[in-house]
Design brief:
- By secondary structure, the protein is α/β, with parallel strands linked by helices.
- It has two domains: 297 residues, Aminopeptidase (3-Layer(aba) Sandwich); 136 residues, Aminopeptidase i, Domain 2, CATH 2.30.250.10.
- It is 28% helix and 24% strand.
- It has a nine-stranded mixed beta sheet with strand order 1-2-3-13-4-14-20-16-18, sandwiched between helices. It has a six-stranded antiparallel beta sheet with strand order 8-7-10-5-6-9.
- Strand 7 and strand 8 form a beta hairpin.
- Helix 1 packs across helix 11, helix 6 packs across helix 11 and helix 7 crosses helix 8.
- It binds manganese (II) ion (MN) (2 copies).
- One manganese (II) ion binds next to helix 6.
Length: 465
């Protein structure tokens, strides 16, 4: 190998640029991160965890602020129990812009249908409709946990969390034995596992009353009634999600990586939280968005296409300036700077042919700046301006944030999107920035602890700009 040219760009492996203390910090973050992922497998659980984190650090609910908001004040708002917005008020007037970082809190999963429970050949099953982009075969032969809420006819709600404790039962979608899979094996992957076939096994014992139809289903209904005080109709007003019942684990002999469900985009949500904890009295107001519904197009009133972010900024502006002024809000949004904090695809040596090597991120080589996402001719992406990318890179270099660039696959290979263009629609400059993952959208995504460490540093650097 020859010497590296002084003029050429070279990607850096984070680990090789850290001192002993920083390396220890990387490992400590890995431990803390696994605990975070284990506690928040759904958007609702993450919203609860963020609220807890916020309150512990002196953030107060925006709507409870009666006093004018002063520099250094910490504010948060939970939207419908699913999305969260947080801010630390800056020295500069908010009308001069904020520094905004936005991650999403939802992940691909299997939602139960509104009438989920059925009996087929003496087995009780839960019908599902998948949420977000999944490879359906990933969800077979896997222990699944059930998380969510059920609202009863009287309006009272009850939380559900079954399958995370090792003493809990789990649910599972059985796969066909290879011995009988001749026809299945010849099908295309897109056709071999129809969505309707994703039904999770949830019982097999009948009630004693032989005169009843569907005695196994009846038994499950009775168990649910005893445990939660619900009837079948109450499952209509429920949101129940099946997620992999696999705890986050270290990956590799060297324990350098984390394997877990839901790291898209909880890796960035985690980095945002850790980063924001270090922001005390920023020059510009620091805002963190934790948005729901990204995996299905950022729709609904908890998604990034809704007015929730602008509403939050409007309230914040009123509470800092003492009165609301539409023009001041627009000026503020236009003068704001944004990072869309979302994961990127790291080069997987097993599937290297899907990536273009020079422009794809590597695991362990720092935060991934992605100028554009989209697919087929950059369609639907934000495509950050050169001026803004230059500013962010400058700030990162100054603050020793090791960064690399990323691209979601070869040209015309596929693609994807983030909330970047929705943030930009408010007028602000935005670039995508996050950590690289292997196996994105699978039940066991892999991240690198050193990348997480750099992402936290990257958030701090961005908010201190
Ligand atoms: Mn994502
Ligand atoms: Mn995703």
């Amino acid at each position: 190998m020859g010497e590296q040219s002084k003029l050429a760009y070279a990607r850096k492996a984070v680990w090789e640029h850290l001192n002993g203390q920083e390396k220890q910090e990387v490992m400590n973050i890995g431990e803390d991160y696994k605990g975070f992922l284990a506690r928040a497998k759904t958007e609702r659980e993450l919203a609860v965890l963020i609220k807890e984190f916020a309150e512990k650090r002196g953030f107060v609910p925006l709507d409870a602020c009666s006093e004018p908001v002063k520099p250094g004040d910490k504010i948060y708002r939970v939207v419908r129990g699913k999305s969260v917005l947080m801010a630390v008020a800056g020295e500069q007037p908010l009308s001069e812009g904020a520094n905004v970082i936005g991650a999403h809190v939802d992940s691909p999963r299997l939602d139960l249908k509104v009438h989920p429970l059925c009996e087929d050949e003496g087995l009780a099953l839960l019908k599902t409709h998948y949420y977000g982009g999944i490879k359906k075969y990933h969800w077979l032969a896997l222990p699944l946990a059930l998380h969510g809420v059920i609202y009863r006819r009287d309006g009272s709600g009850v939380g559900v969390n079954i399958g995370e404790d090792v003493r809990d039962p789990v649910f599972t979608i059985s796969d066909l034995l290879p011995h009988l899979a001749k026809d299945q094996m010849e099908k295309k992957l897109t056709e071999a596992f129809p969505g309707e076939s994703l039904r999770a096994l949830c019982g097999s014992l009948p009630v004693e009353d032989k005169a009843l139809k569907n005695r196994v289903k009846e038994n499950i209904l009775r168990l649910l009634h005893d445990k939660y005080g619900i009837e079948e109709e109450d499952l209509v007003s429920a949101e129940l999600e099946l997620v992999p019942a696999i705890p986050p684990r270290d990956v590799g002999f060297d324990e350098s990586m984390v394997g877990a469900y839901g790291q898209d985009d909880r890796a960035c949500a985690y980095a945002q939280l850790r980063g924001l904890a270090g922001v005390t009295r920023p020059l510009r107001t620091a805002v963190a968005i934790f948005a729901d519904k990204e995996e299905i197009g950022s729709v609904g009133n908890t998604g990034m296409q809704s007015s929730m972010f602008a509403d939050f900024m409007a309230e914040l502006l009123e509470k800092t300036a003492g009165r609301f002024n539409e023009l001041a809000l627009r000026r503020s949004l236009n003068a704001s700077r944004g990072l869309s904090a979302d994961v990127s695809a790291a080069l997987d040596p097993g599937f290297a042919e899907t990536a273009e090597k020079d422009n794809t991120a590597r695991l362990g080589c720092g935060v991934v700046l992605t100028k554009y996402t989209g697919s087929r001719g950059k369609s639907g992406c934000n495509d950050a301006h050169a001026e803004f990318l230059s500013r962010v890179i400058g700030r990162f270099n100054e603050r020793k944030v090791i960064w690399q660039t990323g691209e979601l696959g070869k040209v015309d290979q596929g693609g994807g999107g983030t909330i970047a263009y929705m943030m930009a629609a408010h007028g602000m400059d935005v670039v995508d920035c996050g950590v690289g993952l292997l196996g994105m959208h699978s039940p066991f995504e892999v991240s690198h602890k050193a990348d997480l460490f750099m992402m936290i540093r990257g958030c701090e650097a961005f908010w201190s700009d």
